[in-house]
Design goal:
By secondary structure, the protein is mainly α. The protein has 27 helices and 5 strands.
Length: about 675
């Protein structure tokens, strides 16, 4: 059974990859690629983005159904039939030796990816994936359209990857959605290989006086590509996020795709590469707001090109493609909320139930007696000045108040046991930074990547410092890092320059760079235990979380006919068959309850306003305990591992209401 379960999901993964490749290769059919690896990586990454856009198109017309998704898949492969025939012909015409190397590389890649794929098909148990990414996918699938979701943390958001999850949800299983991120993880590795291999070949570091490449250029290019992929896959942080139905690895994929395509455009001046770079930025912006930073960097680069070369046509092409790809997502947010970056910048676009997200910054809550708000256009102009000022002030405050912690942050990210509750970053970045900086003296590519990464890091420091938000930077920095380390290998003695020695250097260097991610993956697999393949095994696996066990009890007892308000359990909304309320933001935010936690009658009244039938409280004896005489309002129906579920009783008596009013007024 386990073998069949794994084999089935490997087949689903293969179908996803093949469909994405077919779609992307058709879209990029006019491009010339520097290598077969570049063709495979670019086409599949582009196709994955196109699947998200196709999902949005289906959702906007109300066709998010299994039949429509199957028709989409069949249509893509029918459209790509000439492409498949061409690939088969190229395979037959290739030499036997080349086919052997290709098969060996494919098997090695699958062997490295297999443990991560195993992690991906465990039941979803991360935080964000079950809090809103998978709930989005299920909600869209149930509605048959891309609908506003007021019961989730973010009712509307950039959801490009969530729509790919929805397609997987409709024709496969929920665990197959996580394999979208695993595919993105593999594609970033392939893109980095292709980028570094090409960059090494096109560089002038190893040319002779006559301008001809030296004999070992091919070995150096291959080594550089392998090490770039190994640096990326050596990140425990990246591997851990690549096995969950979240979007950070996909965001990194689109950012790297855009950067690689832009570099090809600069080298070839082919408009197709520029259009692809703009599409990659559009996919990134449609995946997560952090993708807007890629759009900003791309905009600066295009403006610089327009001024330097005195031409506007490339910039116009890029803007048109970017608007075509990302425009519908932001237009949808404006349609539902009036805010293109909802729920941010509510001081400009208007407050909502979700504006609490920024109240801790003092940006959304007007002081008593404040003057009437300014017109929106004036508020927008004010925000253009105030938001950068706010970011700068936060950085200055961070440096002035916690300079030692800031200096120790790279070490903590690489070697800290639990920085921000996250898996660590590969130590290769920290240890290789001196060589990268030395490379930047000679390489314009390294300087540009360092500058873009530096700006991203500044925004990261001034906002939520969650390490997984660094995923796009980890992908970009792998390129100059690999170039820098590959240059070190060139300094080895002549006795190490033979073919066998070169292969061993590449192999052992790659093994060293990937080792941290590899050992982390296997340690996590051992910790996860046997793979759950039945409903009972899945439930037992998830019940290791006591809060899930409480929600499961409600599911088994009441089916979908209940509403529970749960404290600190917002990530269980995906597993609740009924309605699960309670979050830091939104209409049912915790702040509406906080003042009533010591007043059971008042708390009961507020919960009834939410139409709640049950109240789930972790740490029940410390967080909430019904006072004497109020037991009829809160009937304890479940308690396990210090997680309590109370059934809300009948309405409070007049005496209890009077005592509640007295407590509130006091």
């Amino acid at each position: 059974m386990t073998f069949v379960f794994i084999l089935t999901h490997l087949a689903i993964f293969g179908l996803l990859a093949a469909t994405a490749f077919a779609a992307g290769r058709w879209v990029t059919r006019g491009l010339s690629f520097p290598s077969p690896v570049a063709e495979l990586a670019v086409a599949t990454a582009t196709g994955l983005g196109c699947l998200g856009s196709a999902g949005l198109a289906l959702g906007l017309v109300g066709w998010l159904e299994a039949g429509a998704v199957v028709a989409l898949i069949l249509g893509i492969h029918l459209l790509a039939l000439p492409i498949w025939r061409g690939l088969f012909r190229r395979w037959r015409e290739a030499s036997v030796e080349r086919r052997k190397w290709a098969l060996a590389a494919a098997l090695l890649g699958l062997a490295l990816l297999f443990p991560i794929l195993l992690l991906a098909i465990y039941p979803p148990n991360s935080f964000d994936d079950t809090m809103y990414h998978l709930p989005f996918a299920r909600f869209f699938a149930e509605e048959g359209r891309v609908a506003f979701a007021p019961h989730l943390r973010y009712p509307v958001f950039p959801q490009q990857v969530d729509l790919v999850f929805t397609l997987m949800f409709l024709v496969a299983t929920d665990v197959s959605a996580a394999m979208v991120q695993t595919l993105a993880l593999a594609l970033v590795a392939l893109l980095l290989y292709a980028w570094c291999e090409t960059a090494w070949r096109e560089s002038n570091w190893r040319e002779t006086a006559s301008g001809q490449p030296t004999q070992d250029r091919q070995a150096g290019a291959h080594r550089c590509g392998v090490w770039a992929a190994a640096i990326w896959l050596g990140n425990p942080l990246v591997v851990w996020n690549g096995r969950a139905a979240m979007v950070d690895v996909a965001l990194a994929l689109y950012v790297v795709l855009a950067a690689y395509a832009f570099s090809r455009w600069k080298a070839s001046d082919q408009p197709g590469w520029l259009a692809l770079a703009a599409a990659g930025c559009g996919f990134a912006a449609a995946t997560k707001y952090h993708g807007l930073l890629a759009v900003a960097a791309f905009g600066v680069a295009m403006a610089f090109d327009a001024v330097k070369r005195k031409r506007l046509k490339p910039a116009a092409l890029a803007a048109a493609v970017l608007l075509l790809v990302a425009g519908p997502w932001y237009g949808r947010m404006v349609y539902h909320t009036g805010n293109p970056v909802f729920p941010f910048l509510s001081q400009v676009f208007g407050e909502s139930e979700w504006s609490f997200f920024l109240q801790h910054e003092g940006l959304t809550e007007a002081a008593p007696g404040a003057p009437e708000p300014k017109p929106q256009s004036q508020r927008l102009l004010t925000a253009v000045y105030e938001v950068p000022e706010l970011l700068i002030n936060r950085i200055v405050k961070l440096v002035s108040e916690n300079a030692p912690g800031l200096l120790a942050m790279p070490w903590q990210l690489s070697f800290g046991k639990d920085y921000f509750g996250s898996a660590p970053v590969s130590p290769a970045y920290l240890l290789g930074m001196p060589f990268l900086l030395a490379l930047a003296v000679r390489s314009s590519l390294a300087r540009v990547i360092l500058a873009v990464s530096g700006m991203y890091l500044l925004v990261w420091l001034a906002s939520a410092q969650d390490p997984r938000y660094l995923t796009p930077v980890l992908g970009l920095l792998a390129v100059p890092m690999a170039l820098a380390t590959a240059r070190l290998a060139e300094a080895l003695p002549a006795s190490w320059k033979g073919p066998l020695a070169q292969r061993m250097i590449t192999l052992w260097g790659g093994a060293l760079l990937i080792s941290s991610g590899f050992t982390f993956t296997h340690a996590k697999l051992a910790h996860q235990g046997p793979l759950p393949i039945t409903a009972e095994q899945r439930d037992a696996y998830l019940a290791r979380n006591p809060r899930y066990a409480a929600v499961s009890h409600l599911n088994q007892t009441y089916g979908s006919d209940y509403t529970v308000y749960a404290i600190a359990s917002e990530n269980l909304v995906y597993y609740a068959e009924g309605r699960l309320l309670g979050d830091h933001f939104g209409p049912a935010r915790y702040s509406k309850l906080s003042r009533w936690m010591a007043d059971p009658p008042g708390l009961h009244a507020v919960l009834r306003e939410f139409d709640a039938d049950f109240f789930l409280v972790p740490g029940c004896q410390k967080v909430f305990r019904p006072a004497a005489g109020t037991e009829p309002l809160f009937e304890l129906v479940y308690r396990r591992s210090n997680v309590c579920v109370y059934r809300l009783g009948s309405e409070a008596s007049e005496d209890l209401l009077e005592s509640s009013d007295a407590l509130a007024s006091g």
